[in-house]
Write a structure and sequence with these properties.
153 residues, Rossmann fold, six-stranded parallel β-sheet, alpha/beta, 6 strands
């Protein structure tokens, strides 16, 4: 398996989650971690799995992530499995529907990716963090479900 973990991070929390996910996935194959600021369409080539994460900014994707997604060519993820996560402060159940992991997975499916797990949110304290205790461990557990043994090539 070749996995690519892409993240956008303003305060470092999303980067920490991405690195924890990548570390967990390393037991299943080669993994690269790339900041969304540095991602090129060619980085997606040969990836069996793409995991993408972003913070939720005012219930929207940050402009940097929106720009990246618009710049990627159609079909860039054809045949790849995809999973998404976000970081956000804790919200009521009604508002929690507006975190960006769901928006990310829709965008990755439009690029040809096949969603393998439901999007996930990892919580930060207040606006800038740090992460709540246990969230990095929860990210590692979530990562285990992202590439189940039955999907491994």
């Amino acid at each position: 398996m070749n996995a690519l973990v892409v993240y956008y991070s303003k305060f470092g929390n999303t980067r920490r989650v991405a690195e924890a996910i990548a570390h967990t996935l390393e037991s299943k194959g080669a993994v690269r971690v790339v900041s969304a600021d540095d991602l090129a369409a060619s980085d997606l080539a040969g990836s069996d799995l793409v995991v993408m994460g972003s913070p939720t900014h005012r219930m929207k994707l940050p402009e940097g992530v929106q720009s990246l997604l618009r710049a990627l060519p159609g079909g860039a993820l054809q045949g790849a499995c995809v999973a998404t996560f976000d970081t956000s402060y804790k919200m009521s159940g009604w508002l929690a529907r507006f975190t960006v992991a769901r928006k990310l997975v829709r965008a990755l499916r439009r690029l040809g990716g096949r969603q393998v797990v439901p999007p996930e949110t990892f919580h930060v304290v207040e606006r800038e963090g740090p992460m709540y205790e246990g969230e990095i461990e929860r990210a590692k557990t979530w990562a285990e479900s992202v590439w189940p043994e039955t999907s491994a090539a």
